[in-house]
Amino acid sequence: MKEQANSQYLKEIIARYLAGTATAAELEFLEQRDMLIDKDGGDFSKINGPEKQDIKDQIKQRLDLEIRRSRPSIRFVRWARYAAAALLFATVGTEIYYYSQSNSTQVNEELKAEANIASSATISPGTNRATIVLDDGSEYQLSESQSGIVNAVNAITYEDGNPISTSAYTSATIVVPAAGQYRVTLSDGTKVWLNSISSLRYPVQFSGSERRVALSGEAYFEVHKDASRPFIVESDGQEVKVLGTKFNVSAYQTFPLITTLLEGAVEVSADAAVQKLTPGQQVRVSDGKMKLMKGKVDLEEVTAWKNGYFKFSGNLESIMDKVARWYDIEVIYKVKPDPNMTFEGKISRDKNIEEIFEIMELTKEIHFEVQGRSVIVMK
Amino acid sequence: MTTVCPYDERDLLLQLQGGDEVAFGHLYDHYWASLYSYAYNRLRSKELSQDIVQEVFMDMWRRRETLQIDNLSAYLHTAVRFLTYKELKKLPLDHSYYLEFEEYLVSYIYADTAVQEKEYQQLLASWIELLPEKRRKIFLLHYLDGLSTETIANDLGISRKTVQNQLQRAKTELHERYAHYLTTLLIITSLLK
C-alpha cells in the first residue's frame, strides 16, 4: 500500500471541511480525532508556566499594536509635522519621556505602511463662529470668515467694515457655541475675545457712570482706559471691576470662576468678599468662596486660547475640558485618569483633534478613541 | 475552558461592542489558552499558533460592532479550529500531525488499556466508515496483512508470540465488525495470492 494513504485521505476530508462540503460522518470523525488530540491537554500542557506567560504576553502585545493601527480616526505620528508645530512632553511624577530620533524614524516607516488606511472621520478644530442676538429678538449668524465685530456709534459691523446691522439697538448678546470663538470691540474701544461656549451681553452704547457687561464662559478683556467710568464684568455672582487693564475671566458653569490679571488693576467681588489683584495674580471663586492663588500664575497658559493655541500644563481632565469646548466633543473616561499624570506643552488650536491625541499618546500613558463626537479616554 | 470567567461575559461583550479595550483584554485573558492549545496541539508551531490566535481575536475586535454572539466560546473555538485546519491542509504529510494519525490507526495492536481501546475503536470505526469502498478494502487489507509481526515485536520489544496473539485478536474483532466488507475483500486477497 502506498505510504500514508490514510493521511492523504485525511487531507481530502480537511479540504472538504474547509470548503463546507464535508459529510456529517466526516465532521463526526474530525471531532472524534480532535477530542483525542486534546485529551489530557496535549502538547500545550507540556509547556511550562513562564513560557506560557511569554506566549500570552507576546500575542497580547501584537493585538494591542494592531488595534492601535486599525483605529481609523487616530493615525500614526507625523513626527516631522509636529517637530515644528508642537513641543509637548509629559511628566509622570518626576519621569520625563523623550522620544529618540531612531524611534520616530521607525514610526514614520510604520506610517507609510498605514498610509492607505484612510482616516474616516476627523474632528476639526473650532473656528470663528458666533451668533449676535439683538434686543428686538433678531439674530444674525456671524460670518466664519470674519474674526470679530465692532460696535460703532450707529452701526454694528465686522472688523473690516462690512455692516451687520445699522438699526439702533440698546443691548446685544454675542453667543459663541462649542468649537467657536469671536472677538467683539465694544463702543468704548474695549476689546473682548470670547472663547467657545461663552456669551457676552453688553450695551451697544455705554451710557451712565459705569460700563457693565455680563459674561458666561471665558473671555479675555483689554479694557479701554476711562477712569471716570469703571468697567464691570458680571458673571454668576462675581463682579470684576476695572479701570483700564488686561485680564481674563473664565466663568464656566460647574467650574470655579477664575479671574487673572495681566496688566493694570482689577477688583473682584463675590458675595461679601473683595479682592484686589495686581498684575500676574489670579483669584478663584468657587461656591461663593474666594481664593487668591499663591505662587506664579502662568499667564501664557491663561491667554493662550486667544492667541490661537493651547498651552497645557496640568492634569488630563483640565486639559480635556479645554479641548472638549474647542472641538465640541464629549469626553468619556473609561478609567479615572491619574491626577499625578500631567502634560506640559503647546499646540496650535488649528490642528485636528487626532493630532493632539497622537502627541499625548506618545507618552504611552494614555489612549484615545474617537467615536463620532465622543472621545473615550483609556489607559 | 473550565475556568470561570471572573466577569459577566454578556457585560464584557456589550463593552467590547462599545470599543472597550479593557473588556477585550479580559476576554483575551479568559480564552487565549484554550484557543492557543487547540492550534498548538496540532500544528506544534509556536509561530503559526500565535498567528492564528491573534487573527481570531483581531477578527472579533474588527467585527465587534456587528457581532451577534450568543455563545462566545463556541464562536472563538470554531474560528480557531477553522484556521488551524487551514494550516494543517498546507502541511506536508511528514508533519507530526499526519505521522501520528498513521501511527494511531495501527496502534490498536499496541493498545493495552480498556479506555484506549474504546476510543481507538470508535475512531477506527468512523474512519473505516468514511473511506470510499475501494480505499476501504485497501486499508483493511493493509491493516490485516501489512503489519508484520516481526516489526511490531521489534518496535515494542515484546515477544513475537504476544504480538501474534494481539494481532489475532485484532483480526478476529475486525472480521466480526467488518464482516460485510471483508467478504469481498478476502475473495480479492485469495485471488491475488
UniProtKB/TrEMBL annotation, chain A:
<dbReference type="InterPro" id="IPR012373">
    <property type="entry name" value="Ferrdict_sens_TM"/>
</dbReference>
<dbReference type="Pfam" id="PF04773">
    <property type="entry name" value="FecR"/>
</dbReference>
<feature type="domain" description="FecR protein">
    <location>
        <begin position="173"/>
        <end position="267"/>
    </location>
</feature>
<feature type="domain" description="Protein FecR C-terminal">
    <location>
        <begin position="315"/>
        <end position="377"/>
    </location>
</feature>
<dbReference type="Pfam" id="PF16344">
    <property type="entry name" value="FecR_C"/>
</dbReference>
<protein>
    <submittedName>
        <fullName>FecR domain-containing protein</fullName>
    </submittedName>
</protein>
<dbReference type="InterPro" id="IPR032508">
    <property type="entry name" value="FecR_C"/>
</dbReference>
<dbReference type="InterPro" id="IPR006860">
    <property type="entry name" value="FecR"/>
</dbReference>
UniProtKB/TrEMBL annotation, chain B:
<comment type="similarity">
    <text>Belongs to the sigma-70 factor family. ECF subfamily.</text>
</comment>
<keyword id="KW-0805">Transcription regulation</keyword>
<dbReference type="InterPro" id="IPR013325">
    <property type="entry name" value="RNA_pol_sigma_r2"/>
</dbReference>
<dbReference type="Pfam" id="PF08281">
    <property type="entry name" value="Sigma70_r4_2"/>
</dbReference>
<dbReference type="InterPro" id="IPR013249">
    <property type="entry name" value="RNA_pol_sigma70_r4_t2"/>
</dbReference>
<dbReference type="InterPro" id="IPR007627">
    <property type="entry name" value="RNA_pol_sigma70_r2"/>
</dbReference>
<dbReference type="InterPro" id="IPR039425">
    <property type="entry name" value="RNA_pol_sigma-70-like"/>
</dbReference>
<dbReference type="InterPro" id="IPR036388">
    <property type="entry name" value="WH-like_DNA-bd_sf"/>
</dbReference>
<dbReference type="Pfam" id="PF04542">
    <property type="entry name" value="Sigma70_r2"/>
</dbReference>
<dbReference type="InterPro" id="IPR014284">
    <property type="entry name" value="RNA_pol_sigma-70_dom"/>
</dbReference>
<feature type="domain" description="RNA polymerase sigma-70 region 2">
    <location>
        <begin position="27"/>
        <end position="90"/>
    </location>
</feature>
<feature type="domain" description="RNA polymerase sigma factor 70 region 4 type 2">
    <location>
        <begin position="127"/>
        <end position="174"/>
    </location>
</feature>
<keyword id="KW-0804">Transcription</keyword>
<dbReference type="InterPro" id="IPR013324">
    <property type="entry name" value="RNA_pol_sigma_r3/r4-like"/>
</dbReference>
<keyword id="KW-0731">Sigma factor</keyword>
<protein>
    <submittedName>
        <fullName>Sigma-70 family RNA polymerase sigma factor</fullName>
    </submittedName>
</protein>
